[in-house]
User: What shape does this take?
Amino acid sequence: MNGLVKTTQRVIQTCVKNASITSALVSRTQAPVKRDFTRGIWHMSCSSRLGGSTASNILHNHSNTCSCGCGLKALHTKDQETPQSKRKALGERELVEFLTEEIVAERKAQKLKTIPTEVEGFQVKGDGAEVVLTKQLKDEIVKITFNVNHTVDSEDFGEGEVQTEKQEFTEMRSKPQFEVDLVRGDTTLGFTCSFLQEPPAAGDEYNDVFGIDEVTLYKGEWSEKVYAVAGDVLDGYLYDLLMNLLEEKGVGNEFVQKLSDFSTAYEHSAYIAMLEGISQFTIGKK
Assistant: This one.
C-alpha cells in the first residue's frame, strides 16, 4: 500500500482519537477513564434485596404524630433509628459483606488465575500498577513500559452486534498508553504509543490497532529538555517506516493485542487485591 493511502487512513484514525492523545506531552501521563458501570454484583442484587422481605425490615411505620421530623410520611429507616455509636459498626459490617461477595464474583470472572512472567518473548516485571516488558536483541534492548491505572473501559459492541439478555456485563478491557524504548548503548529511540479508538475493519490488513503519538531520541536519562515530535505531524512515509521498525522489533498489531490481554488480566488482579486490602483494612487486619 502506498504511503499516500496509508497516510490518509492514519489521519482519519487520528481524528477519532481523544484530543488529549493528539497533543501528547513528553510527561507521558494518561487521563482517567470513567467506568461505565459498577464491577460486581451489587446493583444486580440491590433490586432483589429491596423487592423481598428485606424491604419490609428496612422501613418501619410510625405514627403520624411522631416528632422526629418525618412529618406525615410516617417512614423511618434503620439508620434513623440506630444510635450513632452503632452506625459505624453497621456500615463496616455491610461493607465487608459486600466485599466478600464481590471478591468471590471477581475471582470467578478471572480469565487468568496466574499472571504470566513472559509475553511473546518479553520478560515481565510488575511493580504495583506499573509494568515493564523487556527483550534482549542482538545489539539492543527493547523495553515497553505502561501503567494500568485508569486504562479499563467496557468493550463496545460492534455494528450489528446485539447484547443478549443473558449478558449482564460487557467485558472490561485494559488498553493503556505505552512507551517503547529501543536502547543501544547510552542512546534511546523512544516511542509513545496508544490504542486507536476505532477498531480495524474486518479483512483490512492495513488498519493498525495502535498508533504512534510521539517520537523522541536522547542519550542517557530522559528529561523535560529532550526534544520530541508528535506522531500526527510526521511525514506520512516516515511514519509508516517507523511503524515498520516497531514491527520488526516485535511490536506489531498482533503483539499489541496480546499486550492488551495481559494488561487486562494484570489490572483485574490488581483490582481484586485492592478489594481484599479494603476488606482487611475494614475489619482491622494489617
About this structure: Residues 18-38, 40-79 have pLDDT under 50 and may be disordered.
